[in-house]
């Protein structure tokens, strides 16, 4: 039993002495958050408009002040009011505009 343990230890030490080559981490990671996401800082009114244009047609900015931007847009023949967070770029609310 002791002999097997000593052989295993010697084998392990010989593998460690040989050393494995160092791993090289030269990889770019591109994280796409999809529809609006965290942009790192506040977005502009035009950036918010482009985010809304991915889902709606005929997008028009209504209010680009404060923490939420408001746009009107058309989808399937109906008009909607779309709110986008100016901080994160996420669509926070979509309501039918009558």
Q: Strand fraction band?
A: 25-35%
- Helices, by number, come to 2
Biggest sheet character: 4 strands, antiparallel
Structural class category: alpha+beta
Poorly predicted regions: 30-34
Radius of gyration from the CA trace? 28 Å
CATH topology annotation of the domain at 45-98: Nuclear Transport Factor 2, Chain: A
Q: Shape from CA axes? A: rod-shaped
How far apart the termini lie comes to 84 Å
Strand order across the biggest sheet? 1-2-3-4
The beta-strand count equals 4
| CATH C-level label of the domain at 45-98 | Alpha Beta
What order do the helices and strands follow? HHEEEE
The average pLDDT value, as a whole number, equals: 79
Question: Can you tell me about this structure?
Answer:
With 98 residues, the chain is of the alpha+beta class. It has a domain at 45-98: Nuclear Transport Factor 2, Chain: A (Roll), CATH 3.10.450. The protein is built from two helices and four strands; from the N terminus they run ααββββ. The chain has helices at residues 2-18, 45-53, and strands at residues 57-63, 68-75, 78-85, 91-96. A four-stranded antiparallel sheet has the order 1-2-3-4, with helices on one face. The chain is rod-shaped, with a radius of gyration of 28 Å. Residues 30-34 have low confidence and may be disordered.
